[in-house]
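Researcher: Structure for this, please.
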Amino acid sequence: MTVAISALMGCKEKTTEVPAIPLEIKDDKVYLEDVSDSMHCVLLEETSVESLAGSIFSAQIDDDKLFIAHNPGGGREGDQIISVYDLDGHFLNRIGRKGRSRNEFIIVQSWCLDIDRKEVLIFDGYSHAIKRYDYDGKYISQISMPDLMNLNDIIMADGNIYGLTLLPHDVADDLLIINNDGTFNALLDKREMHSQDNLMYAPLSKKHSSDMTSLYHMRTFDNILYKVTGTTVEKCGYFDFLNPPSASRLLNLSTYDMDLLMINPSLGPQTSDYLFLSAWVDKQFTQFIYNKNTGICTRYDSHGTGWGYTPIPIGASGNILITKIIPSEAQFALERGVSESDRPMLQAIASQENDALLLYYLKDTD
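Model: Predicted structure, token format:
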């Protein structure tokens, strides 16, 4: 079976040469409160049309400012904009505006913070350019990318802009460093895939911490965790507990998101000390926390006994994990029954139009 899969995937590396990443199980699972010092709930302001967030997709924090990518109309992710709030939830401003001018954008394909220059970088999938704005939302400049170059994700780490291409051909590069003139250097080649599976790719996390000095990456069907620092790519280890898909499953693979999730690990937020990921393991959806300092990957769940809601991870900053709670889920949790200590917070969230944000201050593992 392994030989058949390797032939189909066109593997160039032997995973047996990479040490396995240990999996530690604590009473079956560890919970977010076990790895957190505290949690803070942010209720976003709803006093004006501009402050209404609608559906929130991702978030980052810098300079005591909360940057969220959202769609006020509650529609699809491609129509999102970026707004800025303080950590008490007060609306401050929006970043740029929609339009076809050089200083505007049509589609927020991906975005990140440049905390050194105090700028917001938006990759506009319409103009194929990375547009720079200051934290007050004023346009600064742009990096024009080659024709037909699409970036599914961009990340800033230690002053470098990293990107992941989304092109429907096996010749496409995978992980790149993007230069200020729009040229780029490939760091990892895209895995060779069966021709019908031309949309299979392992994304960078859009929910990363903006102050990382290194980023972590996994390629499609690889199960190897890579640490990227500058132009140096290191193999941290092999997730031997993740189930490889069968050759027959690969041949019949569709491009639906659920199929991607079920056969391929999905990277979540990356904080200073932790990497969150999820995968289909032992016939069930399983979440993991990888400790960057110890190399141990632990099964986890969002909360322990007595909690009736599930925070959805949407971002990170330093060692802060940013999650969201949808008002309708808070109401549903109240109807199912929750602990008395959680009830006031959930009642406040349920009365909101905006999603609420829960900030988990994770324990330092250095």
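Researcher: Any notable elements?
Model: Confidence is low (pLDDT under 50) at residues 1-15, 193-202, 256-262. The domain at 2-362 is CATH 2.120.10.30 (Neuraminidase).
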